[in-house]
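Quick one, T. Sequence first:
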Amino acid sequence: MSEPMTLIEFILHKQNEFPEATGDLTNLLGAIQLASKHVHRQINRAGLLDILGASGETNIQGEEQQKLDLFANERFKNALKARGHVCAIASEEEEHFIEFEQNEKGTSKYIVAIDPIDGSSNIDVNVPVGTIFSIYRRLSCTSESVVLSDFLQRGRVQVAAGYVIYGTSTMLVYTTGYGVNGFTFDATVGDFFLSHPNIHYPEKPNIFSINEGYTAYFDQGIRQYLDFCKEENSDYGRPYKARYVGSLVADFHRNLLQGGIYLYPGMRTATDGKLRLLYECNPLAFIAEQAGGKATNGHQRTLDVDPRQLHQRTPFFAGPSNMMEQLQEFLR
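Structure tokens:
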């Protein structure tokens, strides 16, 4: 048997299929890979190092920052800056976007929106956490400085998007609009290897993931859909199985591989939901669609939503097309 391709070998192989490719995106993804290796190492030593617990700081969302949030934010920021192909990043941990000095070769043409650590509060109890990233082309190439509108682009124009999940194994899953592929980290070699080629949602999904503790705050349509999921109907494979970890990446990843729908609706106490559009929902929506599924805010395709703010929140539903269509019947 031949050895599986590494992440960079795979990207280079795909790059060769496009004569106009310059290699810049390959280097950018290489930077994300490098930073994720550093985060993987810290997470796997979490019980031995002083990175557990809160940092004593809060981010722009008013959420308590964990020590791991700050560590990962710095690692991804430094890795992306060093490669010279990214002119600015927006991070969940930063109030404003951060512009990098331009490299010697000219104007960098990419911007990155990133959630360095999704679900960081779960690290204390050994629950999987993740990194989510989204890559866009810069629009303001004629301007000396990056502007906010560079980040406020619809998700459908993403150049690439992906996530890293740090669990029983560390996996990097990404898409450039030509399918979804997953790579597993081999710590003995220090590299990511192709382990899940051409990922698609399974044909018979049967999982729903939602925090039912908030049921009292959900709209009637969501409550009715949850009743539908739990009704017995052997012809349609119901009742569905309820699975909810509380880390967005972990829940999305399981449902992508095993077949299920993820739901984080708006609520009476938070009409726009909790999740951020730019660096959580857009990248995962891109992956969901490339894997044969759908993603919406309940009324509109997620990738068609016009962003208005850097840290804009949105309701989010993503999963296999048939389950999403069932949900839509209850949301009308």
